[in-house]
Amino acid sequence: MGQIELKGVTKRFGDAEVIPPLDLQINDGEFVVFVGPSGCGKSTLLRLIAGLEDVSGGEIQIDGRNATAERPAQRGLAMVFQSYALYPHMSVRKNIAFPLKMAKMSQREIDAKVDNAAKVLNLSSYLDRRPGQLSGGQRQRVAIGRAIVRSPKAFLFDEPLSNLDAALRVNMRLEISELHNTLKTTMIYVTHDQVEAMTMADKIVVLQAGRIEQVGSPLDLYRHPKNRFVAGFIGSPKMNFIGGAEAAKYDAHEIGIRPEHIDVGTTGAWQGRVTVSEHLGSDTYLHVQTDYGIINVRADGEVALHHGDTVWLTPNAACIHRFDQSGNTL
Amino acid sequence: MATQASRAAGRLMISPAVILLFLWMIVPLGMTIYFSFLRYNLLIPGDNPLVGFENYQFFFTDPNFWPALINTLVLVLGVLLITTIGGILLALLLDQPMFGQGIVRVLVIAPFFVMPTVSALVWKNMFMNPVNGLFGWLATVFGLQPFDFLAQAPLFSIILIVAWQWLPFATLILLTALQSLDSEQLEAAEMDGAGPVSRFFHIMLPHLARAATVVILIQTIFLLSIFAEILVTTNGGPGNASTNLTYLVYSQSLLQYDVGLGSAGGVIAVILANIVAIFLMRMIGKNLET
Fold first, then answer.
1. Which residue from A73, A81, A102 is facing B184, i.e. has the nearest CB?
2. Can you give the residue ranges of every domain in chain A?
3. How confident is the model at residue B19 (pLDDT cuts 50, 70, 90)?
4. Which of B189, B191, B198 sits opposite A50 (nearest CB)?
5. A262-265 and A310-315 as β-strands: parallel, antiparallel, unpaired?
6. Which residues does chain A have within 8 Å of residue B197's beta carbon, measured at their own beta carbons?
7. How far is A198 from chain B (nearest CA, A)?
8. What pLDDT is attached to residue A269?
9. Residues of chain A neighbouring B209 (CB-CB closer than 8 A)
10. Could you tell me the fold of the domain covering B65-242?
11. Are B39 and B48 a contacting pair, CB within 8 Å?
12. Are A264 and A305 in contact (CB under 8 A)?
């Protein structure tokens, strides 16, 4: 079981309220990703759930039990830190065994569990090394190993992949997703990278300035963003926003259109000049200077347009998002 | 420093400093060794003939030698024990967020800035003196007989004074080490179910091992040659109860005017320091690797 519910949780540091009253329901077995720009309070929220910070108000329930006043160890949650926080003076085996040793488990039981975790994470041949002798990805796996041996109710990940290089990050992303599929334990994952959020999450929580902007499945957020912030944050490359008269045509204060929903041709609605074209092989990202500003377009990989070429852009009318004065979706 | 030429130039540039430091060390050491083989007493003018190991034989058979050796080791060990353990505890205390942290830290460092003779005199006259001292006064307040520290427990009193001087040094180094501990490690341990005591023994203490090693090594070097505190408080007495090797060398060469004997004692003190250093490096030197 690993059901977590936040009821009116707030957090203040002195006079600054970093998290205004916030409600959130996390179901058992869900992979929930907190995503938002840096400083939006997502890590603070995770630390509140972990018990590393005290809440200023509200209630945290774990499996229906009020855990607000419980110490971190009593909550039965395991956390993987951004810096991995491995104990540098202990071998990998001792690192993974540490929580079990603290729980006063018998040595035989500890050995069995550690060996099992090491097998799952492909760490068996590194058990006698120190963390300093491991690569970034291996350290990451040790940190995860230390979390899974306790069989926690939920895993908390605090930007675990941000210290890895790009190729390794993709690998670890897959490994964590796979781990979730095998363990079926609740996971809460904090990241500022919307690609990680989109690829891993069952449910994404988009945060800004401590407020929840929207909660939903990745495709739900992609297709039906509640407001301009979510629309701009989810999706890569970013959505284009156009205001003024052009937006008025669609009866909106501002319209948004994703780069992949714009067709490039020799005739069309908007005329512009290509300033930069990025050829990725599978796609071509065009930056087009138009009367409405720079518009990003994601075109086919075969498109052979270069700096200075004149193009016409046609938005796919069905995929236009309309926003009102205050940024909410119409 | 990549090319042959730049490497040669580099060596040339640092050679004056290296040569100066080397001479600075080797000339006094060489002269001490030379004097230690001479019969060289300032009260007996005339020739200073070479006498082989006679001075060493005299020094070893001096009834004060073994007590002085033991006193030296007791003094070093006692001060090390008090300063490392006390330093760790003080560092833990000072690491807590509290009101007036900056001022408290400056106050803690203060004893280190007081010169040894002054601090020893302050302790001798204002604290440990059975008539005028604070401790004596406290004892009379509680109706007890004042304790004459420097007469009854001279070595222990000197250990106390020296430990008071070196405690700030240990505290400072251990405090900075404590502050360099990644707070995420402590939080991870907290999540793993480690209470405050477990966190101290499993996470903090291993992290402090390297700093503690540095403290022990540096202090040992200075503690082996404690002199001023003994000179101004007990003069090595009563009897030889607080005489260490350094003080014995002083009394041989300057009180008895026997330069040869004092030099032999100096050489023995150097050898002892090296033995202690080798032992220390064997025991705790591995803490300094990577």
1. A81
2. 4-231, 245-323
3. very high
4. B191
5. antiparallel
6. none
7. 27
8. 84
9. 89
10. MetI-like fold (1.10.3720)
11. yes
12. yes
Tens digits of residue pLDDT in A53-101: 888 888 999 988 888 888 888 888 999 998 888 998 899 999 999 999 9
The CA-atom distances, in angstroms, between A97 and each of A105, A131, A200, B151 are 10, 14, 28, 55
Q: Distance from first CA to last CA of chain B, Å, rounded?
A: 24
Tell me the Cα Rg of chain A.
23
Phi, psi for A5 (deg, rounded to 5): -135, 130
**Residues of chain B contacting residue A99, judged by C-beta atoms under 8 Å apart:** 191-193
Q: Do B193 and A52 touch (CB under 8 A)?
A: no
Kindly report the average pLDDT of chain B as a whole number.
88
Q: What phi and psi values does residue A263 have, to the nearest 5 degrees?
A: -95, 145
pLDDT at B110 over 90: no
CA distance B237 to chain A (A): 46
User: Chain A residues contacting B, CB < 8 Å?
Assistant: 50, 52, 71-73, 77-79, 81-83, 85-90, 98-99, 102-103, 132, 146, 150
- Judge contact between A52 and B193, C-beta under 8 A: no
Residues B47-105: pLDDT tens digits?
A: 888 888 888 888 888 888 889 989 999 999 999 999 999 999 999 988 888 888 888 88
Domain boundaries, chain B: 65-242
Mean pLDDT of B246-257: 85
Contacts of A166 (CB under 8 A, 6+ apart): none
Question: Does residue B290 register a pLDDT over 70?
Answer: no
Tell me the CATH number of domain A4-231, given options 3.10.350.10, 3.40.50.720, 3.40.50.300, 1.20.120.80. Answer: 3.40.50.300
- Rounded to a whole number of angstroms, the distance from the CA of B201 to the nearest CA of chain A is 12
Topology (CATH) of A245-323: OB fold (Dihydrolipoamide Acetyltransferase, E2P) (2.40.50)
Out of A89, A132, A146, closest to residue B206 by CB: A89
- Residues A221, A223, A224: CA angle, nearest 5 degrees: 65
User: What parts of chain A have a pLDDT lower than 70?
Assistant: none
SS3 B131: coil
Contact check, Cβ <8 Å, A73/B182 = no
Q: Is the pLDDT of residue B128 over 90?
A: no
Prediction ipTM score: 0.81
At residue B175, does pLDDT exceed 80? yes
pLDDT at B1 over 70: no
Pick B142 or B256 by higher pLDDT: B142
Cβ distance of B187 and A85 shorter than 8 Å? yes
Query: In this structure, are residues A157 and A189 in contact, taking their beta carbons and an 8 Å threshold?
Result: yes
B185/A87 touch (CB, cutoff 8 Å), yes or no:
yes
Q: Which residues contact A328 (CB under 8 A, 6 or more apart)?
A: A226, A227, A228
Chain A interface disruption, residue of B180, B190, B192, most A CBs within 10 A: B192
